[in-house]
Amino acid sequence: MSAQDIADKAGLSVTLVRRLLRVPEQDQARNIARTTAEAVLGIPVPTRRQPNAPGLIDSAEASRLLADLARAGWPAAALAQRLDVNPATVAEVRDRRPRLHLHLALRIRRLHRELISLDPLTQGIHPADTARTRAAAARRTT
Questions:
Q1: Which is the most buried residue in 30, 75, 96, 113, by most CB within 10 A?
Q2: Count of the separate structural domains present in the chain
Q3: How many CA atoms lie within 13 A of 64 on its CB side?
């Protein structure tokens, strides 16, 4: 892949990618922002079968993470609000949309890390919504 291809797929400037690809001076460490590193490292290696769509990746991991959050009782509406997307988008990704944008996949990964250890009831989610979400998640897995 060229620097331009990496920049296009990661949503970064080509200049920044070229700086990252340069060999650093001896004994000189490079500081790279975490979001930049995640954007570059999250680019899948292109295959011949995948359409050439910049920034799109397989949604299997994001789907699994959203299903985990649903089993924990987090409703799609609450997750969508935190991700700044439509609740239908959360449901589509959770129910195996084939591909999604890299930046959304990274936001889902971060949200999962933040919420999986928290109880939705202590975070202001109504008990009925939590119970309904857990029951629907259990039906989806069987």
A1: 75
A2: 2
A3: 4
